[in-house]
């Protein structure tokens, strides 16, 4: 067993909304809570709490209560935390959907979750209208967070202001919330098949807000930028809920665009950003960075996918900031490990140490036995932040959560004598080359260290001997001279070969305009494999 270097924390028996917003002193009520990066609209903490109460009352009037689900389909906007915590205050469960979902993808989530109400933004409304017509979808009202409602949709549509202004009968009554109630039902991206609903309780989420405290620098009243989607558990916990916990200002960006991102940091004097590796790569290499005053930045957290050490160090040196990396899954609310800001000796390319209250094992996936220190194995983790299970999917739950409460992460890691974890790769993404295991993440890290590579991904493809070998998909750095001359493929293969064992070498390179990634920055390897096999759309 591997234990956190931190003592266990006391986790209060309280609902998440009450934990974050239930005790507001008069001074905090006047502080700005959320603001749009470009438009400037937003809420003070007093206004936010009042809006949360109005949302809860409106849902209660419609009979939405404990055991019911309300979904959110919206980009990062100031109203997001008001809707999110308003649903929780009503005693219901909130299911956040990716704002880029197609109607089919949204319909799956609405159907599987059993959502009764859908909150959506005007730019998502057309897709929402199609989704609610799918068989099995129970949504009977769409609340539009802006203009556009009531234009002939298939179910009742209510504008946001009208929803808030409803005459609430018994608005002061609040349903009791148990810490064991399911608070949030995000849907994991999944590498195969349809996404699964992850049941996260109030206790899970309260715990993870507290568990991140010793790992990061979270001064009261800080200024946070929501650059990752709030529909993703990383954005919900590390950006939104951490900001609210610290009575900080959450600046929202509805869509990520690098120039707008830099401008938001400069204009709003952002101090902390929860980022993903593609953002970090831009901060390390883009010439645009030099055109903006980013001196307010203090801490950059990277998570959702492995961050190469050279990139982390380049960002830290360029911006004079502390760069840390965290690790987790939707199923763990999400944080499991992180690099504490006061541990500069820890390798920036590592996952850091276990958060408080977490116990872990590193296990040989073939034998189920713990491996020796420093040897690779699958990470298993147990703690108060681990999900209840997958909704309506006992088989998937049993395959992921064992009888002892350990979450089988599917990630291959190593852990050092001093408790520092390093990711090797996903268990199911390892490439078998002539009997040897090759980790795509290791090769991607080597590729990104080359100055001619703007982005890269590696997958296993059929080799000439009937087995598989590593193929790299590379986005070339604009203007890199060897690329113009046509010699970059040979150059990067030789570059990687100097840095890895012979059996790990990249055997093939294809240049592409972009690497397909999820909204949280994860490489969508399945799309690359489909592209290679010719089965993609």
Short description:
The protein is an alpha/beta fold and 537 residues long. It has 17 helices and 28 strands.
Termini gap: 45 Å
Query: Please, how many helices?
Result: 17
Q: Classify the secondary structure makeup into a structural class.
A: alpha/beta
What's the level 1 CATH class of the domain at 41-188? Answer: Alpha Beta
CATH topology of the domain at 41-188: Rossmann fold
Could you list the spans in which at least 5 consecutive residues all have pLDDT below 50? none
Indicate the proportion of strand residues.
15-25%
**Strands side by side in the biggest sheet:** 3-2-13-12-14-15-16-17-18
- Give the overall shape, derived from the CA principal axes: globular
Our Rg estimate from Cα atoms comes to 23 Å
Helix content: 25-40%
Main beta sheet: strand number and arrangement? Answer: 9 strands, mixed
Overall mean pLDDT stands at 90
Organism: Pseudonocardia xinjiangensis
InterPro entries: AMP-bd_C, AMP-bd_C_sf, AMP-binding_CS, AMP-dep_synth/lig_dom, ANL_N_sf
Protein name: 4-coumarate--CoA ligase family protein
Family: Belongs to the ATP-dependent AMP-binding enzyme family.
Overview of the structural elements:
The chain has 537 residues and is of the alpha/beta class. Helix content is 29%, strand content 24%. A nine-stranded mixed beta sheet has the order 3-2-13-12-14-15-16-17-18, sandwiched between helices. Strands 1-19-20-22-23 form a five-stranded antiparallel beta sheet. A five-stranded parallel beta sheet has the order 5-4-6-7-8, with helices on both faces. Strand 22 (407-415) and strand 23 (421-426) form a beta hairpin. Helix 5 (103-113) packs across helix 6. It is globular, with a radius of gyration of 23 Å. The two termini are 45 Å apart. Keywords: Ligase.
């Amino acid at each position: 067993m591997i234990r956190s270097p931190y003592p266990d924390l006391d986790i209060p028996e309280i609902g998440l909304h009450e934990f974050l917003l239930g005790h507001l002193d008069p001074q905090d009520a006047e502080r700005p809570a959320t603001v749009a990066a470009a438009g400037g609209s937003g809420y003070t903490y007093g206004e936010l709490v009042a809006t949360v109460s109005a949302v809860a009352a409106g849902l209660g009037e419609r009979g939405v209560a404990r055991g019911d689900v309300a979904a959110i389909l919206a980009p990062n906007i100031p109203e997001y935390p008001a809707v999110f915590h308003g649903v929780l205050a009503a005693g219901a469960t909130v299911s956040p959907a990716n704002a880029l979902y197609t109607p089919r993808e949204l319909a799956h989530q609405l159907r599987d979750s059993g959502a009764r109400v859908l909150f959506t933004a005007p730019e998502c409304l057309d897709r929402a209208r199609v989704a609610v017509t799918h068989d099995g979808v129970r949504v009977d009202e769409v609340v539009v967070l802006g203009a556009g409602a009531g234009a002939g949709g298939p179910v009742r549509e209510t504008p946001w202001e009208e929803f808030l202004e409803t005459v609430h009968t018994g608005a002061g009554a609040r349903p009791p919330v148990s810490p064991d109630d399911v608070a949030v039902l995000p849907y994991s991206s999944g590498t195969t098949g349809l996404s699964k609903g992850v049941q996260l309780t109030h206790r899970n989420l309260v715990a993870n807000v507290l568990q991140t405290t010793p790992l990061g620098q979270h001064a009261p009243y800080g200024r946070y930028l929501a650059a990752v989607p709030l529909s993703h558990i990383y954005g919900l916990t590390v950006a939104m809920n951490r900001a609210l916990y610290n009575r900080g200002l959450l600046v929202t960006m509805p869509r990520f665009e690098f120039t707008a991102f830099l401008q938001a940091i400069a204009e709003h004097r952002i101090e902390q950003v929860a980022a993903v590796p593609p953002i970090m790569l831009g901060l390390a290499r883009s010439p645009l960075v030099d055109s903006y005053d980013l001196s307010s930045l203090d801490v950059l957290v990277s998570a959702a996918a492995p961050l190469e050490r050279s990139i982390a160090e380049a960002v830290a040196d360029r911006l004079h900031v502390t760069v840390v990396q965290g690790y987790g899954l939707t199923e763990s609310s999400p944080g499991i490990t992180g690099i504490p800001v006061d541990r500069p000796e820890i390798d920036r390319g590592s996952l850091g140490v276990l958060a408080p209250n977490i116990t872990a094992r590193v296990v040989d996936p073939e034998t189920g036995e713990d491996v020796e220190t420093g040897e690779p194995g699958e990470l298993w983790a147990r703690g108060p932040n681990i999900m209840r299970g997958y909704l309506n999917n006992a088989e998937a739950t049993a395959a992921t959560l064992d009888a002892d409460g350990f979450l089988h992460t599917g990630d291959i890691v190593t852990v050092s004598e001093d408790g520092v974890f390093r990711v090797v790769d996903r268990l199911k993404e390892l490439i078998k080359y002539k009997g040897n295991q090759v980790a795509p993440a290791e090769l991607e890290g080597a590729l990104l260290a080359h100055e001619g590579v703007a982005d890269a991904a590696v997958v296993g493809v059929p080799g000439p001997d009937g087995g598989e070998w590593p193929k790299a998909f590379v986005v070339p750095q604009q203007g890199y001279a060897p690329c113009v001359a046509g010699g970059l493929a040979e150059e990067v293969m030789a570059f990687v070969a100097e840095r890895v064992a012979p059996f790990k070498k990249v055997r093939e390179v294809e240049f592409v305009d972009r690497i397909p990634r999820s909204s949280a920055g994860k490489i969508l390897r399945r799309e690359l494999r489909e592209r290679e096999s010719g089965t993609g759309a």
